[in-house]
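Risk register update: the risk of archive-format incompatibility is retired. Evidence:
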Amino acid sequence: MPVVLKPTGRKLTAIIEPSEGAYVVFCPELDLATEGDSPEAALDDLIEMALDYAEQYMAEFDRFSRSPNRAPHAPYIQAIHANPTPAGVRALFEG
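Archived output:
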């Protein structure tokens, strides 16, 4: 039986839940969370947050990629960096 040592895809997960008149969205792969007035608004905000985080991560790649809590983000950050647009990040969520 084959053993998979690392994932082959770099897809992101968006978990959206209602919360007190708003919607909270969480991306476990990047440890990012935000909220919006609607599920779509929350996802749009998360996409912008992911783009900002990827920019910061790439600017300080040596430091972030060695940090125990941020090193696992590197493959996802590189996927975002390959197409750093809202549509590109949305495609990673929609997979």
